[in-house]
Amino acid sequence: MKAFAVRNLKLYVRDKGAVFFSLLAILITIGLYVLFLGDVYAGNMTDNGIKAAGANEMMDNWVMAGVVAEASISIAHGVLGIMVADKARKITKDFHVSPVKHSALTGGYMICAYAVSVFMTMFAFLLAQGYIRMNGGAVLPVAKLPEILGVVFLVNFAATGMMAFFVSLFKSQQAYSSASTVIGTLLGFVMGIYLPIGMYPSFVQWIIKCFPISHGAVLFRQIMMETVMEDVFEGMPDGVMEEICKDFGVTYYFGDFKATPLTSVCILLVTGVVFTGLACLNLGKKQKV
Amino acid sequence: MEKIIEVSHLQKYYKDVQAVKDVSFFVEQGGLFAFLGPNGAGKSTTINTICTFLQPDGGTVVVNGHLLGREDEKIRRDIGTVFQENLLDGLLTVRENLMLRGGLYGLKGKELVSAVEKAEKWSDVEDFSDRPYERLSGGQRRRCDIARALLHTPRILFLDEPTTGLDPQTRQSIWNTVKRLQEQEGMTVFLTTHYMEEAENADYVVVIDDGKIVAKGTPFSLKETYASDRLKIKCIHREQAVRFLAERKIPFREIADYMEIAGKSTKEFIPVLWEMKDIILDYMVEKGSMNDVFLNITGKEIRE
After folding, report:
1. Has residue A289 been placed in a domain?
2. Could you tell me if B100 lies within 8 Å of chain A, comparing CB atoms?
């Protein structure tokens, strides 16, 4: 299983195109934000009487939290593309002619995807900190690092599981590429990172809240934005901060129920377990030649 | 001789279509066994079943004493398979590919390295083992595929049309490698092929058509039964020769500027030739080939 995971890693790293395209969704988000979305949101806030510097730093943290969360799923998706390529090129035939269990192969794909996406998510997090610092914001204190790491591990577990299941449904490279394009486009929306969740109609808000990986973004936001929000909203009425948290998806409300960090953690955990199980089930079936 | 593969009453359906209808044959240990048949005859289905990809819908298959369906994992350890497609990773070097696939058999450390080296030596890929697989020529790739199949020193080597699409020279050299493995390493070789000259070199041939076995035997016995030998003669005066053959009621065919006489054996031609020696300009004797066998049995030309 380990050797097989290493093989997938080598294939992924050597395919420069695959690496680039798995980063594309993230680059698009950052591009959109840096070019104009950031200014629009920060502008909205200063209109509400918040200091410009604070608003900017808060928005930087907001978008970067989203980007870090998005990295998990888009990288896992990119790495697991190897699985479809193997099926399309019939390389799986060669694996199944050897005395290796289906579960070991599935495990090899998923371990590789998990390892790469954890690494890249951490890398994205470090880059995000660099960007925030460059813009004059404060770097996250080291004491918060364990929390970040915990969320990184968790969100990637859920993301790898979901993507493995999704990828297991495809047999042809072409169908997979087309689906990937659609996913790449939609991902930023269903994660609630292109636009703050409060700007969508309530129906779409529900879709976002029900998309499990978006809870990863919520957790990152809560950790990364905590300090700056305390500063910004100091001395303001309680309702203002709560309203902003709701609009920007820092806290989710399911009807009257306010989702706590524990709720999000549980959602991610269950998602990871369920989808990993489904993916294994789907991939374990006897392959037809 | 011991039977290393025994297939009895094998049946396989694809939904309502019966791809393999009651096929029985056996393969002797250490032999070179050729499986012939036109496209869609059920060749690949049969091979895929023996290689544990497909579960049979009827009948039994025993490979080296292991029953298919119950001891698939043991069967997989005993067989090495070279598929029609090239199935190694293009972005990895030959060496990396072999190390990885060797790992699938539970080989580790020194054991793995020596297995890889041995496989490389057997199939002559040492010279380009550091190059990425995708940059190799067709013949070199095929050699790597064979090396991959040899990693765990299988008892039986399956080759599904191993030389299709290769130039004649490369074909010959791949073929020599296969022959060497069979003769020197005592490996049992099971191959399907389009090329009659390859079938001709086999110890035993099974011809399959429309999901059924239509003939089996050694190339020699098949030719004896299904192919006729031919005498081709070119005469000084055509009319003279026609009259001569007609008088003796010897059937013949005129093709271009020569006449062709079919016979059960080349020996039959001696008296005819002797009697005609004064009116013959030139002659040629041809043994029946596997191509004739194939044509006569299936009514189809072997296609690529």
Report:
1. no
2. yes
